[in-house]
Amino acid sequence: DKEPVIFIDSPGVLSTHDKNEVTVKGRVEDDSNITSVTVNGEPAKEFDGTNFTHTLTFEDGSQYVTVKAVDEFGNEMEIRRQILVDTKAATITLVDVPKTVDLDTDEVEITFNVKDNFDQIRVYLYDSEIFANEMSTYSGKSFDQNIKTTVPVLEEGVNEYKLVVVDLTGHRTELDFTITKQAAPAPEDGTVLKVKKDSYSLN
């Protein structure tokens, strides 16, 4: 007698999930009666002889769904599928951003840090992509990197910026900051004032 054949309809292979609860659905085909279907060792919550449904709760990270079926003759089959669970958004921290720049500065380099539990990361300044990192391994490598980019400082006064990080499952993390473009402060020894006074006396 042949062993059962298991089909997992969902979740898909290497599917990404932004919730810890994942519903597993599929079916079992066999010439004889199936006596048991387990999902990660737990009896399937719903099983009508062919179709099964079961909900599992996972920690964040790279996880496995294992479905096992046994028929009335003790023939068994087990299949395993890897999924990626990422319920937490990335974090952004400013590392090195000048609060002010002088009037002849049109662009400035900034450094910020991005952390996430998977290393598939995209970073946008408003809606233009300034950084992209593809997932390096399906085993769930975390990301923690300082990223440098150059931003324009075009307007005199306050310039506003928005950094947006999008992670593996599409969580968006936004961070707003400003850089002020202004004249350099006068030296405290009054040199600038003295020059001004002299220039007046020339007239």
Descriptive report:
With 203 residues, the protein is mainly beta. Helices cover 6% and strands 56% of the residues. The protein has one helix and 17 strands. The protein has one helix at 191-202, and strands at residues 5-10, 16-17, 21-29, 34-39, 42-43, 46-47, 51-57, 61-71, 76-85, 91-96, 100-101, 107-116, 121-125, 128-133, 143-152, 157-166, 172-181. The strands form four sheets. Strands 2-9-8-4-5 form a five-stranded mixed beta sheet, with no helix packed on it. It has a five-stranded mixed beta sheet with strand order 11-17-16-13-14, with no helix packed on it. A four-stranded antiparallel beta sheet has the order 1-3-7-6, with no helix packed on it. A hairpin with a 5-residue loop joins strand 16 and strand 17. It starts with a strand and ends with a helix.
Task: Throw out a few tags for this protein.
single chain; 203 residues; mainly beta; five-stranded mixed sheet; 1 helix; 6% helix; 56% strand; disordered C terminus
Summarize this structure briefly.
By secondary structure, this protein is mostly beta strands.
Write down the overall geometry: rod-shaped
Percent of sequence in beta strands? over 45%
Q: H/E series, N to C?
A: EEEEEEEEEEEEEEEEEH
Helical percentage: under 10%
Q: Helical region count?
A: 1
Distance between the termini: 111 Å
**Poorly predicted ranges (pLDDT <50, ≥5 residues)?**
192-203
How many beta-strand runs? 17
| Helix/sheet category | mainly beta
Output mean pLDDT.
91
Rounded to the nearest angstrom, the radius of gyration is 29 Å
Question: Biggest sheet, strands in spatial order?
Answer: 2-9-8-4-5
* Major pleated sheet: 5 strands, mixed
